[in-house]
Amino acid sequence: MSKRALITGITGQDGSYLAEHLLEQGYEVWGMVRGQANPHVARLRKHIGDIHLTTGDLLDQGSLISAIERVQPDEVYNLGAISYVPMSWQQAELTAEVTGMGVLRMLEAIRVVSGVGQSRTPGPGQIRFYQASSSEMFGMVRETPQNEKTPFHPRSPYGVAKAYGHYITQNYRESYGMFAVSGILFNHESPRRGAEFVTRKVSLGVARIKLGLADELRMGNLDARRDWGFAGDYARAMRLMLAQDTPEDYVIGTGQTRSVRELVELAFSTVGLNWRDYVVQDPRFTRPAEVDLLCADPKKAREQLGWEPEVGFEELVAMMVESDLRLLSSSSRPEDEPLSPDHW
Ligand code: NAP
Ligand code: G4F
């Protein structure tokens, strides 16, 4: 019997890679999608055929209960969130509701539908739950590199909401014995990354400049450092966490940190250009509070999950720039079609 997985956030970057990975592993994959005509669904269907969809919204408790009742999953991957950090200052309350309280609602849906804490205690057939926690929770870091025991000091409403999601997942594990785990994932990127995030903004910007479609790239803080990996590698780690005998949290990252300046320099150099000729610093992209440095200590994941990243930083950046060069050169793209993350 194949396992059945339900993924929230399936229309996002990670949802697509996780769906592909679980299909390869023989799973029956269901995605929860919101809205009555979500434009991201067509993109998903185009790239990943063999999935089932059900409706639901992390803001709506009843819809989550209905989704769990309908799908009867073995595993739930909660990837749905408002995930763009700057937006979390503009819509702090909505971010708390979707990215934070949404986790509680999904845990409650699983608890209610499985009867955990009432008629039944969790047993071998229980629904396993994965929460997409974030290195953004470490914020103003207390130590480097960051591991599973490093204290949190979030620096954005997004980071605060993720910390709530992390702790409520841990609490449901301890209160009800649920198989509920958090993956504390560091930044991971791909050609499917939303255009608002820095790596994709840079790969699209470099491609536009190389093709003569733009003559500058306006950026925020070039000194910030991140631990950037490839999203496809991180999807493997999510499944591995739910395949363990005991539910535990894991840090997932490469263990290497680079500055935004290094990212920009490398991306321009892949097409033979000097970034200094094109990059303009623009205070509009500076944040009210910054996370200056993130660097993972993925030792536990390596030793207990046998997880290793396969794609390095240089390969990742080249992959993204080449993909965007192909995208923007494509004659199949109508001239008046706006560039958006819809273009994978
Ligand atoms: P993403 O591309 O921004 O995708 C976010 C997903 O959340 C989309 O599918 C979106 O669906 C969905 N969503 C938004 N509001 C929702 C709501 N009210 N109810 C249900 N679904 C909703 O994010 P990602 O990069 O794939 O990241 C996946 C998860 O990992 C997120 O929780 C993110 O915070 C977390 N994370 C990401 C990284 C990273 O570096 N990528 C690192 C650590 C943690 P629509 O199509 O409806 O908009
Ligand atoms: O790509 P970013 O927007 O990612 P950020 O804020 O690190 O968040 C991402 O990773 C988190 C994991 O740590 C996830 F939880 C979260 O959902 C998301 O996927 O920005 C990276 C860095 C920041 O320090 C930012 O200030 O790049 C800096 N940056 C400099 N100029 C810029 C820009 N970021 C963006 N988006 N745009 C700029 O022009």
Looking at this protein, list some descriptive labels:
single chain; 344 residues; alpha/beta; seven-stranded parallel beta sheet; two-stranded parallel sheet; 11 helices; 13 strands; globular; binds NADP nicotinamide-adenine-dinucleotide phosphate; binds ligand G4F
Within the largest sheet, what's the order of strands? Answer: 3-2-1-4-5-6-11
List the secondary-structure elements in sequence, H or E: EHEHEHEHHEHEEHEEEHEEHEHH
**Total helical elements:** 11
Shape: globular
Give me the Rg, rounded.
Answer: 20 Å
Description of the molecule:
The chain contains 11 helices and 13 strands. The chain has helices spanning 13-24, 40-47, 61-71, 87-90, 92-114, 157-176, 198-210, 231-242, 260-269, 299-305, 313-329; strands at 4-8, 28-33, 52-55, 75-78, 128-134, 180-185, 188-189, 217-219, 225-226, 229-230, 250-252, 258-259, 279-281. With 344 residues, it is of the alpha/beta class. It starts with a strand and ends in a 15-residue tail after the last helix. The strands form 4 sheets. It has a 7-stranded parallel sheet, with helices on both faces. It has a two-stranded parallel ribbon with strand order 7-10. It has a two-stranded parallel ribbon with strand order 8-13. The structure holds NADP nicotinamide-adenine-dinucleotide phosphate and ligand G4F. Ligand G4F binds at residues 83, 85, 134-136, 186-187, 196-198, 201, 219-221, 224, 226, 260, 285, 287, 290-291, 294.
